[in-house]
Amino acid sequence: MSCTVSMTVNGKTVSREVEERTLLVAFLREHLGLTGTHVGCDTSQCGACVVHVDGRSVKSCTTLAVQANGAEVTTIEGLAAADGTLHPMQAAFREHHGLQCGFCTPGMVMSAVDLVRENPNPTEAEIREGLEGNICRCTGYHNIVKAVKAGAEAMAGAQPAPVAAE
Amino acid sequence: MYAFTYQRPTSLADAAAAIQAEEAKLLGGGQTLLPTLKQRLARPTDLIDLGAIPELKGIREADGGLEIGAFTRHAEVAHSDLVKRVIPSLASLAEGIGDRQVRNMGTIGGSIANADPSADYPSAVVALKATVTTDRRSIAGDDFFTGMFETALEPGEIVKSVRFARPDKAAYAKFRNPASRYAIVGVFVAKFGAEVRVAVTGAAGSVFRAEAFETALSADFRAEALNGLSVEADGLNADIHASADYRAHLVTVMAKRAVEAAG
Taking CB atoms and an 8 Å limit, are B6 and A133 in contact across chains? Predict the structure, then answer.
């Protein structure tokens, strides 16, 4: 019982023959070799596996690869620019020491980017609420929240300046 | 997870035909079903993904209230300007389900068909005088939930939409489990003219109405009207998170908070 699953991952079209029960996280890690997306709890609680499917953050350990058939998927590997320049949110996590062991970081960054897309200038409370689906056992969250705040500001600054109406 | 055959029908008729297969299961957002399958607690032969059926999607204004397609995700309800305008309490309930990523996948149809005793939506279905429309009939919200993980749905019956009446005032207050964010107790209070409905989720095997609360609030829609009232602890859920007595206590507290929030 296998099927062909095709999707765009980090801008590249991929197609693989997989068992229908393959989870999206297994598809990414085992079939595409994109091991930046982590499996933590494997019970949709910890958020280490968060990726974007058509721009929305989801837990890839609780999504079938076939459910993302035809979708645009972005993983942590797809955030940095082609020349290696970190995404502003990644840079903010580094700058503000928003990680210690780093295991939760890919999921944290993906959730943070999705949060800021929806709410470009989140308050501390909104950041904490927005990261409820991500668990970190090292940092106590303080620096993660600081990093997301700074990342949000950097993302707003990175937007092209609005063109004045003629 | 055991192996299964995955199907993604593009019409309700095709889904209705596919679900007739023995041991087939409908797949909404999968936020309960996939964890269940991963633990090998179920072994369906076929998964029928409802995600490609246009008739199951969308939020419309209907009869002054709202009609929400079964395959509408919690995040869509939470962020819908229409829901925020017509029944803001429903948007705020949806915003409190699970976490952001769960809300991006989970659907209203999946939630009510699963009928988890601690789910949030059942309280809204009962308090907001909802009608559940399936591919076969309409079911009144009051008759839909029949027990723990049990509904009035027949085998193979597919929820199409849920129609909610627009209340004059309403609010949902939840005492949540901090890890799962399911309701340890959630109370939805809705006022329709002189009629007040109080629906309680999380406390018992299935959502129920607190009739004494409704009578008191119909006469006097203030939190103080609930002073001295409580539900019977006997028969309420008791687990590591909360005893039956504590849940009974929380029902009154959450009902008062909901009345205050409804204003």
Answer: no
- Residue A6 sits at φ, ψ, to 5 deg, of -125, 140
Task: Enter the ipTM.
Answer: 0.93
Which pTM does this prediction carry?
0.95
**Structural domains in chain B plus CATH codes:** 5-49 (3.30.43.10), 54-164 (3.30.465.10), 169-262 (3.30.390.50)
Residues of B in contact with A71 (CB under 8 A): none
As a whole number of angstroms, the distance between CA B124 and CA B165 comes to 10
Within 10 Å of residue A125's Cβ, how many Cβ atoms? 9
Share of chain B above pLDDT 90, in %: 98
A41/B contact by beta carbon, under 8 A: no
- The pLDDT of B218-247, averaged and rounded, is 97
- Identify the pLDDT of residue B21: 85
Find out whether A152 and A116 touch, Cβ atoms under 8 Å: yes
pLDDT of residue A158: 73
Residue A165 pLDDT > 60, yes or no?
A: no
Question: What sign has the CA pseudo-torsion B17, B20, B23, B28?
Answer: positive
Q: No. of H helices and E strands in chain B?
A: 11, 14
Question: Residue A161 pLDDT > 60, yes or no?
Answer: no
DSSP letter, residue B50:
-
Containing domain of residue A15, as a range? 2-78
